[in-house]
Amino acid sequence: MEIAITTFKGLEQVLADELKVLGAKDIAIGVRAVTCFGDKELLYRANYELRTALRVLIPFHQFIARDIDTLYQKIRAYNFSHYLRPDDTFAIDVVAHSEYFTHSQFVIHKIKDGIVDRMRAVFGVRPSIDTENPDFRLNVRITGDMVTLSADSSGDSLHKRGYRTKTVSAPMSEVLAAGLVFLSGWDRRSMFIDPMAGSGTIPIEAGMMAASIPPQFCRKRFAFHRWKNFDKHLWKKVVSEAVQKIKYDLPPIFASDKSRIAVDNIKTNMEKLPFRNGIITSHFDFFNVKQENATIIMNPPYDERMKVSDVYRFYEDIGTHLKHKCSGSDAWIFSSNAQAMKYIGLKPLKKHILFNGPLECRFNGYRLFSGSLKETKQNKLQE
Ligand SMILES: C[S@@+](CC[C@H](N)C(=O)[O-])C[C@H]1O[C@@H](n2cnc3c(N)ncnc32)[C@H](O)[C@@H]1O
Where are the beta strands (DSSP E) in the chain? Predict the structure, then answer.
């Protein structure tokens, strides 16, 4: 069957690489989504093991519509009984990138009417809406005039892993954090530091990757559990095979923040995860501590609302600290403030553009040489 997996714009290649490892066939990269072919086992593994997936969908019908009446008629003409019985509950999610359909709530309303009107005409009863825990979650993606209907096998978005119970302001999506760790190329063995860790999302995702803890280790509910064809034995096999790969011991991973509440939150957020030695948390100011010979990923505050009086000066200070106190490290900065990023004042070795929803963000990597760049190049030549 065809499986379509959604992600953040900019993480499609990372997601495709993850899918390859799972053994998916005919992988094709789209925008905010990757498609592939596989069986029910792949569907379950995709939900349980992919770190950069937001939703795992099974597309089942496609048609063209340019106005709301055509959309309604096409939905009404489709026989949903393979997925939905009249006494079931259902929910509808709409993602529209279309000049023809600009009002998502109205689109949802008309799609619901189309389904309900047909069911009532055929069976005399109608399924009801349950947005929290429905029997069937319909995903409708509209790109231009192309409407794709898919069964959503995940339910809640897969960034809701179940471990993060406490957050600071502006917490990062777990899916995005995992994507950043992949993009940084961290080897999962050497030292890793997030010196502005907030609720700890980046170092916790790094720790889960290093210890091979499945991203959904703590999550109990997936939409496909309620499907008529749910194979409980296959699901148990998928979970137990993934759990057997957990390594428990971690390389040195440090998470610190200048806010004590943030540090307490990181500790709480780790509690449900099976880390034996845990991520090392500390309460200090980034500017007071050296961070040498490590992979550093940080997501600094990006505007004045986040208690930084002068954002440009703050980014300039980050650049200076990295240059003088973090030699031998690879430092990565994630920020939605493109202007502030220019104040880092270091030449990035790698640059990525990612979208956090509609928000364009930069993820730049800097190599911080020990000694001067000239000396390092000479040392390398002599090796
Ligand atoms: C955007 S938040 C990080 C969010 C984090 N990625 C998460 O997922 O929760 C920025 C964090 O940087 C911290 N911070 C700001 N200035 C700092 C400094 N000088 N030293 C250490 N932490 C700092 C703030 O306390 C805040 O928790």
Answer: 2-6, 25-29, 33-37, 55-64, 89-97, 128-129, 136-143, 146-152, 192-194, 253-257, 280-283, 295-298, 330-335, 350-356, 359-367
